[in-house]
Amino acid sequence: DTWRYAHEEYEGDVQDVFAYDFKEYVEENSEHTVQVYRFGELGESDDIMGQTLSGILQFVNQSPGFTGSLIPSAQIFFIPYLLPTDMDTVVEFFRESEAINQMFPKIYADHGLKLIQMYPEGEMVVTANEPITSPADFNDKKIRVMTNPLLSATYEAFGATPTPLPWGEVYGALQTNMIQGQENPIFWIQSGGLYEVSPNLTFTKHGWFTTALMANLDFYQGLPEEEQKMIMEAGDYAFNKIIKHIDGLAQEALDKIMADCKECTVTRLTEEQIDAFQARAPQVKEKFLSMTGETGEKLLNQFQEDLKEVQKDK
Amino acid sequence: MATIMMVIMIGLLLLGFPMMVPLIAGAIVGFVMMFDGFGQMGTFIQQMMAGIRPASLIAVPMFILAADIMTRGQSADRLINMVMAFIGHVKGGLAISTAASCTLFGAVSGSTQATVVAVGSPLRPKLLKAGYSDSFTLALIINSSDIAFLIPPSIGFIIYGVISETSIAELFIAGIGPGLLILLMFSIYCLIYAHLNKLPTEDKSTWGQRAVAVREALWPLFFPVIIVGGIYGGIFSPTEAAAVCVLYAFLLEFVVFKSLKFPDIYRISKSTGLITAVVFILVAVGTSFSWIISFAQIPQSLLDSIGISEMGPVGVMIAISVAFFIACMFVDPIVVILVLTPIFAPAIEATGLDPVLVGVLITLQVAIGSATPPFGCDIFTAIAIFKRPYWEVVRGTPPFIVMLLTAAGLIMAFPQIALFLRDLAFR
Amino acid sequence: MSDNSPDLDDDTGTFESGLPGVLGTIDVFISKLEAFLLAAGVMLMAINTCINVIARYVLGEGLFFSGEINRILIILITFAGIGYAARHGRHIRMSAVYDTIPVKGRRVLMIFIALVTSVLMFFLCYHSYFWIETLYSRGRILPALGIEIWWIYIWAPVGFAITGIQYLLTAIKNLTSKDVYLSTGVTDGYADTESEV
Ligand code: NA
Ligand code: NA
């Protein structure tokens, strides 16, 4: 059969590379073919999720931030400083976390989705009109965020004024000082040229841009067991390849930015500076709990345990 | 599947069905063939709603409302009077004034039709009286009104920006250069035409009269300042600028000029709502249509079959221009933008062409095509408004079409015509 | 650029129903309601968007529910408007070929056009109703306003139904009269002179 797979990014971006790795594995190990649709081809995030739920699409890759209106607890990834900060620990976290590997699949299944793989795309980096070293630096700054209440809560907690804007307007809005900053993984900052109009990069270490591959649950359960197994293996295969792909991707993008932009600055927060931001995290947790109730509380507790677990090994 | 959809759509279109019907029918056929029946019509409806969801589309009714208020009030006349006071007396001045007034009113209005009404209606009797032939006059009015489509605000840019995820603010700014270039070309043609036909000139206005005309037009001249200045200065998004224009138009016509009375606002809002609905239902069904052709991967196979991958950026620009030009000779511009933009999207992305440049080219082609026989919809607008026969309306258009196509060629050869101001503002 | 009757005077002022008796009264009432919703929708949208701009300057941030209100209004305007446009024969069409046909042929063609369009409208009415049911069952809400999302789409099936009825009436009107009618109240502009020949 032809299986249809939609994601939220452009050609060559992380989700696209992941999709083609997944496709490669499926096509080598079965009679099926996978048709990949990129951003905008079948609509926006809301649309491709709806199409997956109604069974037109078999697979959808979507970031929990967008899944949030369907599965509120998926927004947990927007709570600042909940994930570890360095690459190795993050990878280990995604491989071993009980929250991610046991609890989330159950939550997704309740909404008609088979969670195949969650994976990190990159660390969030803030760009602004001046370097950010403390929450006070965020005062009077309008920071562009994706349309998501919890993400807005994070930037409110940091002291900024969160401003939801569609991606297409971000460059112009920064250029004309309608907003004073934004956050994104570094390779988007590079490929979108955002550093040209927002030259001060701050590594706040507050979170990773995370995304997830899902399948329509009825479709998945209707498959013979060996094909179900093959799909999950394809997810593992793509995960292993994407981890290698994103390793170094961030550094490469940063090098390109610094080569191209003389006025650009890079600020990496020190432990004490991070503490000042981290002190603001509890109010975001509160907001998360008020939005998600008991499910959210269990998930959050498990996340924190998992985090301790992986950090203990270090 | 693509062939069947095409045949059905063109057939229904030519028979004179409301334009939403060919799109609905084409899309339904696509859904039925793709999913073996009506099982996925929910997605059809869902995509319709997704089509009218983008917040940027709010700018469309707002700009229509602002232009509607001003067309019924005094702003248009005051702008025309000012232009006339300055260039009415030169050879061909009346014709040049018409083109210039269209350009200036274009900075207020998002649509060709509104401009034809606002500028064409009062100036056509004057042109005829001065000895310009009717076919020249009609062609001048139609084609000059098309400049309004390139000068911000422009409904074409808004729809293209929403469909292609391109910044509407950047498109707006990029339209100014080409709009002025075309005004320049038209003005030269008017000058030559007036000399060849030995047309008389108008009386020269005194500086006193000019001062009065400028003072009268001062208030309406703030519109371009709000729109262009607002966007340049990062004060407004295009949608916000549209809302501010409405507020300003309201204050101007209802409070300052007192040309309209409060009950008029109900009538004007109703008329704006009607035009908006007629456009947005097309946007809605057009989105379902482009969803199904995208799902069936028709754009890719269509583009492969014309060998677009070997064309390179210039070849792609030419292919896009030709396709939009031809389509707009037959079909309403909104429909063309809705249907063709997603088809060419993969090629635009693959060649790395600047989507803003492509947007300007597309909008220009839309403007040209819709003034080109046989069926360009501007022709029928002119027939309806001026009650003139088809042949009379069409006869004077060739020189204008040649000039507009030259402008398109120049923009392809020198993209900076469009991109210079954009780069100045946004890069 | 896209209203095919760009005459900016109010040509939709009066509406006479094609239906007899009580049904006619109801139809005229619906027409008035549509007109009111159109005008109110546009005015509210203008007010809402203006207030949002002002709030962004005075309070430093826009109103968080402004976008959702506009989203509701645009659906209202679109679907109240398609029925109203059908009543007044204002949907955009490419009539160049149609116009060359003599009056009898045009009448037959118009009956065909109106019937097919009517069927398609009822078809979309039916499917949008079931789509709203699906939305209802998924229970999503508008994040800022907190109301269930299916509410905002209620106008879709209603608008399609009214449009379908209007085109059906247009077909009947053409079947029972000598002139060609674009809608129940609007002749196609050539019929008057030609039918006298
Ligand atoms: Na314009
Ligand atoms: Na035009």
Automatic annotation (TrEMBL), chain B:
GO terms for molecular function: transmembrane transporter activity. InterPro entries: DctM (IPR010656), TRAP_DctM (IPR004681). It is found in: Cell inner membrane. Signal peptide: none annotated. Keywords: Cell inner membrane, Cell membrane, Membrane, Transmembrane, Transmembrane helix, Transport. Residues 7-417 form the TRAP C4-dicarboxylate transport system permease DctM subunit domain. It is a multi-pass membrane protein. Pfam families: DctM. The chain crosses the membrane at residues 50-67, 135-160, 172-196, 217-235, 241-260, 272-296, 316-344, 356-386, 398-421. PANTHER family: C4-DICARBOXYLATE TRAP TRANSPORTER LARGE PERMEASE PROTEIN DCTM (PTHR33362:SF5), SIALIC ACID TRAP TRANSPORTER PERMEASE PROTEIN SIAT-RELATED (PTHR33362). Belongs to the TRAP transporter large permease family. NCBIfam families: dctM (TIGR00786). This is TRAP transporter large permease protein.
UniProtKB/TrEMBL annotation, chain C:
It is a multi-pass membrane protein. Signal peptide: none annotated. GO terms for cellular component: plasma membrane. GO terms for molecular function: transmembrane transporter activity. The keyword Metal-binding does not apply. The chain crosses the membrane at residues 35-57, 69-87, 108-129, 149-169. Keywords: Cell inner membrane, Cell membrane, Membrane, Transmembrane, Transmembrane helix, Transport. One of its GO terms (biological process) is C4-dicarboxylate transport. Pfam families: DctQ (PF04290). Residues 45-175 form the Tripartite ATP-independent periplasmic transporters DctQ component domain. It is found in: Cell inner membrane. This is TRAP transporter small permease protein. The lineage of its organism: Bacteria, Pseudomonadati, Pseudomonadota, Gammaproteobacteria, Pseudomonadales.
